[in-house]
Amino acid sequence: MAASRAVGSILGTLAGRFLRQAGGGIANRIAARNAIKAGPNTFHSVALEQIPNLTPASREKIAQFIQSGEFEQLTLRLSIATSANKKSEIAALRKSLNESMRLYRTVPENNLQAVSDALFDDLSAAITSKLAELNSEKKVSLTSARVVSAQAAASTRNCDLICKIDDLRTYDEFHKHFSRQVALTENKVRPPQIDSGSRIAIDRIYVQATLKEEGDNEERFHRETALLPKDIFENYPRVVILGDPGGGKSTLATKLCVDLARGRNRGSAAKAPFKVVMRDYAKYFQNSRVSIVEYIEKICGALYSTPAPEGCIEYLLLNSRAAVIFDGMDELTNTALRQDMVSAVEAFSLAYPGTPIMVTSRKVGYDLSPLDADLFEVLTLGSFSYGQRQSYVRNWFGLMRSGGQSERTRLAENFLNELSHADDLGGNPLMLGLMCALYRGAGYIPRNRPELYRRCSEFLFERWDSSRGILVEKPFERGMQNAMFALALNLMQSNDGASGITEKRLVQFTTSYLHGRYYEDFDAAQDAARQFVEYCRGRAWVLTDVGTDIAGNNLYAFTHRTFLEYFAARQIVRECSDVRSILDVLYSKLRVQEWDVIAQLAIQTLDERLLDGSNGAILALLEKIKEESDRSARIAITSFCARSVEFMDLRPAVLRSVTDNFLQMILAGSIPEDRKKHSLSSAARGLLKAPAELHPVIADQIITSITAMPEKTECLAFALSLTAYTGTADDRGGNYWNEVENQVVDTFEKEIEDLCISEPWFAVKMYQKGRCTLDEVVSRHGVKVIFEDGHHKMAAASSPENLYTFMTYRGQSLGGIEEVGDADSANPEGLRKEVARMLELLLAAPTPWAKMVRMHRWEHDETNSIPEDSDQLFLRILNVMLGGDRLLELVIGTRKRFTSGQRGSIYRAISRARKGEIGETKLRQVLDILPEDRANFVVKWCAREIDILEVHLQ
């Protein structure tokens, strides 16, 4: 029997909330759950074997029953009852098992009692053993008072229900037919950006969503083990999914329904997916107070043409054969109604404690009416990563009806190449789809931000409802956008942009705006304002309802900050007539690093009204810097001007002024240490992203400005790091900025040669460019220079890699070698010589070689193969050793990358020798592939006779 396996699986699924102490995000949750459910694959039931006349066919039916939802739910309840020592409930569960096996027709009636008792006794023993193991390891606790009480009540109801059922075949047929209908019905979606409005298979457009727990950082967010929709309930049986408007919450809910309906969920039993759209259920609730179960029964027949047999929904919910998805809790803007729905969902979760439940809601406003944190965990639906954007775009263009496959692929790749200047918008699926639609129609993504935002907002204004099949007459259409502009600026000025505006204030503001402009009569203006608010309600387009405040007042806010900032900028330009008046509004904000995007958009929009408006504004800001006494304000304005180069059409003369001003800021040492990286990096990236035809202007001005400087060190460091800010290639397909760096080296050869003697960073930089040898670098600064960070204090965006990592991974521009470590390098012989010489220098130097290595990479060690070149192998072994005991534990102890393969055996041997688990002889047998001197070095390090660093990674 597989009873023990079932016990482990069910305890792992039991309620993800019991695993919260595992911590560390979704990946650790999955690992913790897998550890809990791990155990023997089979369970030897001695009691069952002692029952006479138990045929092979009966044993097969018993095995099938153990994989059912009924058995899963009974095991869950028995686990809780055993943990809480509820003897009366245990007796009731014994009776329930007997009745369930009767319904499943597992064995003849004359053997039923004996078989069910034997299975129950063996199951109880397995649970007791498993609970003892878990409690000793403090992995899980099952004795939450509310959980115990809810499970006891559910057990009683289920026992009574089962006793009344004569045959399960009707319920089984409903389950199968309903799931098939859901798979067929929900499988088709209608993306709002698709012109045709046609429904398409969800798998053709869906991109795996990224979910994270509260506190997960963004880097780890996209690096962690992905949680697929079909696996959500296995790890988070009761969960709230929070996301931004247009972020994919409803799409995730639909995808989960389809996966469940198709039987893709992991676990011992298939589950019927019941999706409850909260705004629809709320109407039924208000009108007739129907329960959630009654509503589910209604939609089975009404939406899926599969009427449920009497008692069937109750049975499926009580026996872990269904899952419920409540979609759009945030769409209930009436405070009292929303609280009623929250209470209803919480009551439902307690009435059916074994039923997996997911609730979706927007982030904004959720905290005002949250679900009970003891019953539901919370995950956040994140923005698209770079890879997810690529997948979505390729899917989107792949759905085009016109053109062949090659044409669609070409459009997708061209779109992705152009997306870089609107990268901040691409993380939102709705906005990304809008830009795809714009690109398909126009053949380009407007580089002019105001134009891009205008077209996106117009798309939503004009086509959002119609694309969803909704026909609504827009109130005061003639002035609606202008009212939006004025409202956005008002919200920014009152700092209400994020939190929103109450419905009362929104009506008052809109009425005031309309009265006298579009309506003579105040009452007519007020009626129009109210219609406008009603129009916005429930639409995830530009402005929409987002919940309520503490006092219960309805709140409205812009769905995406993009629109808030764009509309505010448009209003500023509408109110101001020239550059001076616009800067009067913006300067006080810019000097304290506020309204950055609004200012860029406003100045760009000014070009539509004034000839050379943006050039005049930037020059005026540069003049204001000269008058500014506050250092932080000078930095803020200088950085703004440099970053604006990317988005504005500036004359060459103005671009020269911006470039020189930026370099003067570096020369003056104006940037405080704690703001250096942000201020310098963002400004430099913006400056160097000027249109390609203006790159020579910037390059010439860099050299011209540095030539005129008495002290050149800081600006030379910047000028030698241009490729770090821009990448290796510019828009014209050449390595332009690398050529500029080489021109800088040639122009300031004497100054840089002197700096190579005094500053290790310059020496390493010149070695990377092939201008000096490794011996020269080491002779000047010692072998520690190989491990020093790749940052210069004024080259904050330069590569953080030290020279060792540079040699191991990249080696760009090193004597013509494109990739150090790449057998296909342009100069493989030169590569081998450089690596060999570095290793010779290291082994000849006394240890420790350096104090510590701050920036350390080891991802390449996920490859099991061993390089033919022993230098390359030793290079990688040293790379792991540089990480010390902690890295060895990460690579060998917690990762399972090297369970096989030659390189894996070497790393495991080094790790075990370092911990004293194997002796020198065994280690040398593994290291016999290395030359003797290098094997000796590794052996000494493992024996802790030498240390290569004073301080290792902690």
Write structural notes for this entry:
- With 954 residues, this protein is mostly helical.
- Helix content is 58%, strand content 5%.
- The protein is built from 45 helices and eleven strands.
- Strands 3-8-4-7-6-5 form a six-stranded mixed beta sheet, with helices on both faces.
- Strand 10 and strand 11 form a beta hairpin.
- The radius of gyration is 34 Å and the shape is flat.
- 45% of the residues are buried.
Which terms summarize this structure?
954 residues; mainly alpha; 3-stranded antiparallel β-sheet; 45 helices; flat; disordered N terminus
| Helical fraction | 55-70%
End-to-end separation in angstroms reads 47 Å
- What global shape is seen? flat
What structural class do helix, strand and pairing data support?
A: mainly alpha
Number of strands: 11
Strands in their spatial order, largest beta sheet:
3-8-4-7-6-5
What's the mean pLDDT score?
77
Sheet with most strands: 6 strands, mixed
The low-confidence runs, each spanning 5 or more residues with pLDDT under 50, are: 1-24, 35-44, 137-143, 217-224, 467-472, 670-678, 728-734, 811-826
Q: Give the count of helical stretches.
A: 45
- Gyration radius (Cα, Å) is 34 Å
**Percentage of residues in DSSP E strands:** 5-15%
